[in-house]
Amino acid sequence: MVALEGGVLVNSLSDAFEEFNRYNVNVGVDESRRGRVRSIYYCPISSSADTFGKILLDYCDWLQVARSKSTHYGAVVLLNYHIIPYFANMQISELRSRHLVEVAKRIYQTPPKHGFVTHVCRDRNIVLSDDDLMKRRRTFNSIMTHLRGSLRYAADNGVRGALDASSIVKNVSVNTKPKIFFLNITEVRKVLDNCAENLKNIALGALYSGCRVGELARLTVGDVGCGGFGLRVPAFKRGAGRFVFLSEDGMNFFQKIIKNKDKADLVFTTVRGKKWRKHHVVPFQEAVRAAGVSEKFTFHGLRHTYASYLLMSGVSLEVVAKQLGHKSILTTVQTYGHLSDSFREQEVRSKFSFSVGHSAHLLNCDRPFLSEAEEPSMEYNYFDTLV
Q1: Distance between CA atoms of 16 and 10, rounded to whole angstroms?
Q2: Are 119 and 37 contacting, i.e. CB atoms less than 8 angstroms apart?
Q3: Closest to 268 measured CA to CA, from 182, 360, 201
Q4: pLDDT (tens digit, 0 to 9) for every residue of the chain, 387 residues total?
Q5: Phi/psi at 278 (nearest 5 deg)?
Q6: Dihedrals φ, ψ of 28, to 5°?
């Protein structure tokens, strides 16, 4: 008889399960589990019981038709790994804050699992760096978002107590200020010099347009110069389509790339003429390593490099937001606002002064000097100017 506590396995059983997984037992592999996870691993014990396994199963079925493939896949992976083994048969009315605290502790104390690598057990003495702690807090918040979403979805379907349970599910605070890592011109040239021709082309496409690799991979010849001096970028993931304006150099580059191609052809292809998917990851990291650049720099960093140079060239945040396809300028401000502020500070400190030697170009200005400016008369009447 398995001991239960409010429908959840007691910590001792949980620890025993994790200890059991320490040993690499040579057992048969369930072939149905190979490949990408498609659904929640849960079989309802009773059709009438409103358990977390049941509502998560319904929620992920809804995600599959209402959200992108990546959103559905990410939710299924997180919930199968962190929630189902411990909460599957727990009724939603039994949820308490202490259960969520236990989820957080387990995430903080268990290394993440990638692919089919051996499961690593919980370590209560683990010491996390600030970056690792931030990443695991983000993981916890992602799980809480899906858990809260599943409860609200269940409430919409008439499940009693689901809305009350959703009020218990809360996120933890995370330092949301991103660390933007972009390259200077010298570093960009070194990286590009170590890229093969096809990889170099799509990397240049990212630097000239700020587009994501997925957007560039889907770009066709007909999208270049369609409707203006730039690129028509089709809808990607949950984002709407947009038009990205290009510089003279950028437009010349794209015109050169598409020369002698048909409108339906892809702008960028692999060395085998195939569509870019994940083929860029390893060779680009090798190019970064060969260039002597920090290995933390990824292909997505080219998008950050593009946006950073726009801002440092004096382009407004509103324009940058539209170029990048951000739904709200708030996203741009949170990501790149500090660069804009730093640039404004540098410009004001270096270019503005009332000293004659520094601002000689102001000497011929029609405006009076500060010492010659007169105080406005108190008898001045605005309505006199209307006569």
Answers
A1: 10
A2: no
A3: 201
A4: 344 444 444 455 555 555 554 444 333 334 444 557 788 888 876 666 789 999 999 999 999 998 888 889 989 989 998 899 888 889 999 999 999 999 999 998 887 766 666 666 777 888 888 878 888 898 999 999 999 999 999 999 999 899 999 999 999 887 656 567 788 889 999 999 999 999 999 999 999 999 999 999 999 999 998 878 999 988 776 667 889 999 999 999 999 999 999 999 999 999 888 898 888 989 999 999 999 988 889 999 999 999 988 988 888 888 999 999 888 888 888 788 777 677 777 777 776 666 655 555 555 555 544 454 455 444 544 444 443
A5: -110, 10
A6: -65, 150
**Which residues, listed in sequence order, are joined to residue 220 by a DSSP beta bridge?**
266
State both tokens at 371: 């010492």
- Reading the block at residue 31, the tokens are 């072939």
Residues 60 and 40: their CA atoms lie apart, in Å, by 7
Distance CA 170, CA 147 (A): 10
Q: Are 151 and 92 in contact (CB under 8 A)?
A: yes
SS3 137: helix
| Backbone CA torsion sign across 193, 199, 200, 205 | negative
* Phi, psi for 103 (deg, rounded to 5): -60, -45
- Tell me the whole-structure pTM to 2 decimals: 0.60
Q: Residues with Cβ < 8 Å from 342, sequence gap 6 or more?
A: none
Rounded distance, CA 77 to CA 70, Å? 11
Provide DSSP, 226-269. TTSSEEEE--BTTBPPEEEE--HHHHHHHHHHTTT--TTSBSS-
Cα dist from 145 to 85, 172, 318, whole Å: 18, 11, 29
Written as six digits, the tokens of 29 are 């592999």
Handedness of CA 257, 262, 263, 269 (dihedral sign): negative
Amino acid in the structure at residue 40: I
The Cα–Cα gap between 70 and 78 comes to: 12
Please give the helix or strand (H or E) that residue 9 lies within, else none. Answer: strand 8-9
Q: Which helix (H) or strand (E) holds 189?
A: helix 185-193
Question: What whole-number distance in Å separates Cα of residue 132 and Cα of residue 382?
Answer: 63
Rg (CA), the chain: 28
